[in-house]
Write a structure and sequence with these properties.
2 copies of one chain form a homodimer.
Chain A (H helix, E strand, L loop, with lengths): L6 E4 L5 H11 L5 E4 L1 H6 L3 H7 L4 E7 L3 H13 L4 E4 L5 H11 L3 E5 L11 H15 L3 E3 L5 H11 L3 E7 L6 H6 L4 E4 L1 H4 L4 H17 L2
Parallel strand pairs in A: 1-2, 1-8, 2-3, 3-4, 4-5, 5-6, 6-7, 7-8
Helix pairs in contact in A: 4-5, 6-7
Chain lengths: ~220, ~220
């Protein structure tokens, strides 16, 4: 995954034309576009392919199944033209290994903990263990929340030079520059861009903040 | 969810015409057809709608996201015509509540533990807690594995009259009659039916085994 603007757009739109319009508007300002199931279900899996013509696509599918199903999902994601996929570790190391093995040139990112309040119940206490599993399985990187920047630093100690992608910036309260300062490689931004009346201007402003934080490292 | 044959077909096919052919062949022998992401990704979300014209469809999407995304996925599943959806509890009680609230007349089933070896790492020790969360959130039922029938009995003690659906029968080693004897309401069968050269005969044989086990209760 390239590391230019260090920004990933979370395109959590379900309207097809609006999603394509925003993607087109900010594609050159982000290193990847992250999409989730609601967009695929409201349109079709063909959206993965269409968006990947504009920008590398990460399918944030939070895969959490038995090894054979994890493998089948990853194979379909790859066939549709995505560049990365997000997988849960809590369904076990065999499932995670099956996902990484099926990924080939696709980047697999493993969720360490989640950015919402319920993330504290089960995922947060296991975050470091999940980070270790990501390293062991040969994943490309991990997902660690900007809403708890101290956990980014802890996860960095475990994952070495694996990529850290950080959601929770903006609407959820995390700061892009804090996330970069604590060791995140990429900041995932959603509503602050796609929910803005001027998505490109919003993306440019955030890109500047991230660039400054990265220069200060 | 109706309780006639007490059997659910796990239609883990990714070939569209073969999936439709098998569904058509056994629709009257099962109470529901369970589909997973690989079929949706290899075809389109329209498959949910097409299959639901033959038989009630349970989307085994193992949803495991933040509350807002869980809600959006469930809304799309409902819009596509499914009758049920499978959700993980480990992303927290707020995510689970959001899924159940968005479900309306759709049945939400909560995963307690998983049937594969890696399921022992994180989900199995939390199975009873997840079952309790299903009751609290107002889910329609839970998923508990036939590969560990003693856990079905434990889960039954917690969930009262919620439905218990049991995967892991057949190819994964679990027995349909044991699962029913231990308190499962429905047995989920996949490869033993769709992988058979004669799917209808295979389904009829299993339906008979289940009927006998249910009569012996």
């Amino acid at each position: 995954m390239k590391k230019n603007t260090r920004m990933v757009l979370a395109l959590d739109e379900t309207d097809e034309s609006r999603a394509l319009k925003i993607a087109d508007e900010v594609a050159d300002l982000v290193d990847a576009i992250k999409i989730n199931w609601p967009l695929v279900l409201s349109t079709s899996p063909e959206m993965i392919t269409r968006l990947s013509h504009l920008c590398p696509v990460i399918c944030d599918f939070k895969i959490a199944d038995i090894p054979n199903t994890d493998r089948l999902i990853v194979e379909q994601v790859r066939r549709r033209g995505a560049s990365g996929v997000i997988v849960h570790a809590f369904t076990g190391s065999d499932s995670l290994s099956a996902a990484v093995k099926a990924a080939e040139d696709l980047d697999v990112f493993v969720v360490t903990e989640m950015s919402h309040p319920g993330g504290r119940e089960f995922t947060a206490p296991l975050a470091e263990r999940f980070a270790g599993m990501a390293v062991e399985a040969g994943a490309a990187g991990v997902i660690a929340p900007a809403t708890r920047p101290e956990s980014i630093a802890r996860v960095r100690n475990i994952v070495g030079d694996l990529l850290i992608l950080t959601p929770g910036v903006g609407a959820q309260g995390g700061s892009a520059s804090d996330a970069i300062s604590m060791g995140a490689d990429h900041v995932i931004v959603g509503r602050s861009i796609y929910g803005s009346p001027m998505p490109r201007e919003a993306a440019e402003k955030l890109a500047k903040e991230i660039r400054q934080a990265a220069q200060a490292l």
